[in-house]
Amino acid sequence: MDPDFDEFLHVPARLSVVALLAPADWVEFGFVRDAVGTSDSALSKQVASLADAGYVQVRKTRNHTGRHTHLLLTPHGRQALQRHAAALERIVAAARAAGASS
User: Whole-prediction pTM value?
Assistant: First the structure.
């Protein structure tokens, strides 16, 4: 297995969240939930795991419209995503090369 392949990050829900956060600054929890197509509770569990691993930062605020949660991909999370994506690209390239030589 490629040493940059990240088993933790490869979980589809986690990978979807970090990929969605990668090009953005702070992103509203509800937007992430809707874009990933999951429930509040399922996303909360994944975000908690990502935050515990240092991949995502969570900011909770309150204003006149209620409570708001925003997510940010940390530098550590960005590096992990880049390494993991590179590992996936190498795996795909090796599979293509093997298929072409058959």
Answer: 0.90
